[in-house]
Write a structure and sequence with these properties.
about 10% strand; eight-stranded mixed sheet; 8 strands
């Protein structure tokens, strides 16, 4: 009887691992790399580089995605609206998308900021506006402190930059564990996560509507691959201690700074993170948009682009543009609630 149970358990484990391996290959075939790997010394980092066009009227722009994301997320939001206006670099953060992880320092925003700085050097970009969404905000802040000479300006979109109450979701903690995390990521994450991609991505936009083709275009399933999922979990697990130590240093940031946030963000607490940045960074402008959730990059793209123009030295009334965005949002159909709360998602681009 014991032998039968043991064989059954082994069969289930092997079948689950085989399914995850099969689906990992299928996900990569469905969403192949659209960037290019660049050797920066200790790792190869993946990015999609759009060279400076002859018609450019903006400085170089570097886009940093959030947790569970990849370069496609910011590319789909901004590449089209900004076409012909700037050199752009859309980065897969170390250990995400198709970038290699590198050393243990890349499990912290500081290490990832340094990797992006080395990538800039390889790409011949001396200075840029750094745009960070959500978790990418912690990296943008780190970049501004560690590489001021490479920073034209900082744009934070619904950033995660300060310590918060309540901890993190259980699956991040589990996935980051040495042995149990490996088993969980290789056996259970893909079958569970694939069932939650639809509801999870809708909750990221809530209370706003998610674009119909968002999943197809931004490939959130890439984070479900076991190695990527564990890297993502390590990032999230390490974030609280990191921002707790670094937030008091944000006053060192001298670059022009704009923070765009929504007052209806269920993913990060704007009253802690965005208002905290506005308090801590001298001269920073806070732009709060009513009834906006966690995705100002998609729902208020025009305001974000105006902020880039402002950081490049142009005169832009961001507060007036925010009021226009609020009127536009008010005329849109509200996002219906789903059965699963945002804190229970196996996939969240944040």
């Amino acid at each position: 009887m014991i032998n039968v149970l043991l064989y059954t358990l082994v069969f289930i484990l092997v079948a689950a691992a085989g399914f995850s391996a099969f689906k990992t290959r299928a996900i990569e075939q469905a969403y192949p790399n659209i960037g290019e790997l660049t050797d920066i010394g200790d790792l190869r980092i993946n990015a999609l580089h759009l060279p400076r066009p002859a018609s450019a009227d903006l400085p170089p722009l570097i886009f940093i995605h959030g947790a569970s994301g990849n370069l496609r997320d910011q590319f789909e939001a901004f590449a089209g609206p900004l076409a012909g206006r700037a050199e752009m670099l859309f980065v897969d953060r170390p250990g995400h998308g198709y970038s290699e992880r590198g050393g243990p320092e890349n499990a912290l925003p500081s290490g990832q900021a340094d990797a992006i700085a080395r990538l800039m050097e390889k790409r011949g970009i001396e200075k840029a506006v750094i745009i960070g969404h959500s978790f990418g905000g912690a990296i943008a802040a780190s970049f501004g402190m560690r590489h001021p000479g490479k920073t034209t300006g900082l744009l934070f979109l619904a950033p995660a930059t300060h310590p918060w109450p309540g901890g993190i979701d259980w699956y991040y903690t589990l996935a980051a564990m040495p042995v149990l995390g490996w088993l969980f990521s290789h056996l259970l994450v893909i079958p569970i996560g694939l069932r939650r991609v639809e509801s999870g991505t809708r909750n990221i936009f809530r209370p706003n509507e998610r674009p119909i083709d968002y999943v197809e275009k931004t490939a959130p399933e890439l984070v479900l691959r076991p190695k990527t999922f564990r890297n993502n979990a390590a990032d999230v697990v390490n974030l609280f201690a990191y921002v707790s130590a670094q937030a008091p240093r944000y006053r060192e940031i001298k670059a022009p700074t704009v923070i765009i946030t929504g007052d209806s963000d269920d993913i990060v607490m704007e009253e802690l993170h965005s208002r905290g940045l506005a308090r801590d960074i001298p001269g920073a402008e806070l732009v709060t948009i009513r009834n906006l959730g966690h995705k100002p990059d998609y729902v208020a793209t025009d305001v974000a682009i105006a902020a880039m123009e402002r950081l490049a030295g142009a005169s832009r009334d961001l507060q007036s543009l925010a009021r226009q965005a609020e009127a536009r949002i008010a005329n849109l159909k509200p996002q219906p609630s789903t059965e699963i709360a945002p804190s229970s998602q196996a996939v969240s681009t944040s």
